[in-house]
């Protein structure tokens, strides 16, 4: 019969171990690099002004410890402050990074929620280090956003009228709850458990009623772009109701601009808005300034390129790109369907040639579209041009030109031209370029540049919701995740430099 060595592990007997915390951080690992960079390449003295305890008061947990601990936790998918505190007790690597300190979870939570602006400084320093390792190309960028719920209740969302209705519903529910309890009392069911359940339910309902009532009394209805009222939220009014692939959520969009060379995030911001496209000019400006500050060398001959999906398609964004000297490739709403068509794209305004002298257009079949009238579409003046119904009815190209065959027999192809999509207009030029193979090839890279960034943050690092409330706090948390993403990209270069790889 086989005999094996005896182990004491099952007996539960304790033992003393000599642990050298420094030795727990193994060269070649993320935590080893993190431990060395924070304090050398990453200056955290920016946080010193948070502490006024030089003359009295207890010593504080050093910010370098908190930065290292939070970064390590986020890398491992731990985002709760309570669990980060636990890590310092139970995980020897976290203990080593925290220099054997055990910050209370409130200290960690406070550091994350108040560090918003200062994390921008850390983000900039990490970018400089990325540039030192030559990870930033500074040529092609892609922008997109990750739609994530935050610590805000979707139930407590609505316009003023919706919230008033909800308040009335809660009040009715509270009344019914009391009536039900009275009926039970009369029936003699006044057990301790039932009383406890009643009290708890009533407490929750009263809390909701109080919060809603206070909010409605003091609320200033939020206005959207068109000046119309949009939804407000009782728990976090800076968050927004956002349509995501999983349905409607109440939260923020974590936006990022990534560089094409190694998917380094060069600009990051969380926005409490359902319209991420409106933040494109800011994100682009910020990305260019960050790249410049990080010291990335530009190719003087080449214009930088930024790619974005149809959520960002607007005249304002195209103009912003042009003003900043960037080639802006943004897909329009029907870009995919045009590409997906078996027999090629459908003819659009840019496929017709304008004849300035006669103020008419020539279609791809060489027929004329004459000016008919001017009308307003979505508040914009729109000139209408029409082809002859007879020409379109017998045209061999009508399949690619007129949507409905029936309609073509009656009236022929029409063209609506606004100031933007008229020849020479910014949208007209853009769409024309977008139909070229060169731009389509460039645009095809958008996904490869930006999507791995969100996959890394959401899937690998487990950020499936923001755990904070308020724009500034959520933005701080998003910046921290982006910092960890960029640091992760530095590991290979760091190890190479140190001879660990
Ligand atoms: S369908 Fe009419 S407008 Fe279109 S290409 Fe033919 S003739 Fe021209």
CATH superfamily of the largest domain: Ribonuclease H-like superfamily/Ribonuclease H
Biggest beta-sheet profile? 6 strands, mixed
Strand content: 5-15%
CATH classification, class level of the largest domain: Alpha Beta
Per the principal axes of the C-alpha atoms, what is the gross shape? globular
Q: Please, could you describe this protein's structure?
A:
The chain has 501 residues and is of the alpha+beta class. The protein has 4 domains: 17-114, no CATH class; 137-150 and 241-332 and 443-471, Nucleotidyltransferase, domain 5; 160-220; 346-430, no CATH class. It is 44% helix and 15% strand. It is built from 18 helices and 13 strands. Helix 10 (315-323) links the parallel strand 7 (305-308) and strand 8 (327-330). Helix 3 packs across helix 5 and helix 6 runs parallel beside helix 18 (471-498). The longest helix has 28 residues, at 471-498. It is globular. The two termini are 46 Å apart. The model has no long low-confidence stretch (mean pLDDT 88). The protein binds iron/sulfur cluster (SF4). Iron/sulfur cluster is lined by residues 363-365, 367, 387, 391-392, 395, 397-398, 401-402, 412-413.
């Amino acid at each position: 019969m086989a005999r094996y060595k005896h182990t004491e592990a099952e007996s539960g007997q304790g033992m003393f171990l000599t642990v050298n915390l420094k030795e727990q951080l193994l060269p070649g690992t993320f935590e080893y690099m993190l431990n060395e960079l924070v304090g050398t390449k990453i200056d955290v003295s920016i946080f010193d002004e948070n502490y006024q305890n030089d003359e009295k008061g207890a010593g504080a947990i050093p910010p370098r410890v908190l930065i290292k601990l939070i970064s390590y936790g986020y890398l491992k998918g731990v985002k709760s402050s309570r669990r980060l505190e636990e890590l310092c007790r139970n995980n020897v690597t976290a203990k080593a990074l925290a220099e054997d300190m055990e910050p209370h979870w409130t200290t960690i939570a406070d550091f994350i929620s108040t560090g918003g602006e200062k994390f921008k400084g850390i983000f900039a320093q990490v970018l400089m280090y990325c540039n030192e390792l030559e990870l930033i190309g500074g040529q092609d960028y892609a922008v997109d956003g990750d739609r994530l719920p935050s610590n805000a209740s979707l139930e407590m969302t609505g316009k003023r009228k919706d919230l008033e209705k909800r308040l009335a519903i809660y009040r009715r529910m509270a009344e019914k709850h009391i009536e039900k309890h009275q009926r039970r009392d009369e029936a003699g069911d006044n057990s301790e458990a039932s009383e406890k359940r009643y009290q708890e339910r009533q407490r929750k309902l009263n809390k909701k009623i109080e919060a809603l009532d206070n909010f409605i009394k003091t609320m200033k209805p939020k206005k959207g772009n068109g000046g119309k009222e949009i939804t407000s939220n009782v728990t976090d009014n800076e968050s927004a109701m956002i349509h995501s692939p999983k349905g409607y959520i109440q939260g923020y969009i974590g936006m990022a601009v990534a560089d094409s060379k190694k998917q380094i995030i060069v600009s990051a911001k969380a926005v409490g808005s359902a319209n991420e496209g409106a933040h494109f000019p800011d994100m682009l400006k910020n990305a260019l300034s960050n790249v410049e500050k990080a010291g990335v060398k530009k190719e003087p001959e080449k214009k930088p390129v930024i790619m974005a999906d149809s959520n960002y398609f607007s005249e304002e964004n195209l103009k912003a790109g042009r003003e900043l000297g960037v080639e802006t490739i943004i897909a329009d709403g029907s870009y995919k369907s045009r590409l997906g068509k078996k027999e090629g794209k459908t003819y659009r305004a840019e496929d017709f040639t304008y004849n300035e002298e006669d103020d008419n257009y020539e279609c791809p079949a060489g027929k004329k579209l004459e000016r008919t009238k001017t009308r307003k579409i979505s508040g914009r003046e729109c000139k209408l041009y029409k082809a002859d119904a007879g020409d379109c009815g017998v045209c061999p190209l009508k399949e690619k030109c007129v949507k409905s065959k029936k309609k073509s027999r009656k009236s022929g192809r029409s063209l609506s031209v606004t100031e933007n999509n008229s020849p020479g207009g910014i949208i007209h030029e853009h769409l024309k370029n977008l139909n070229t193979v060169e731009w389509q090839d460039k645009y095809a890279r958008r996904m490869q540049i930006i999507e791995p960034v969100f996959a890394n943050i959401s899937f690998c690092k487990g950020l499936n919701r923001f755990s904070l409330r308020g724009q500034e706090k959520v933005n701080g948390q998003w910046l921290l995740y982006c910092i960890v993403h960029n640091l992760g990209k530095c590991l290979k270069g760091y190890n190479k430099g140190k001879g660990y790889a």
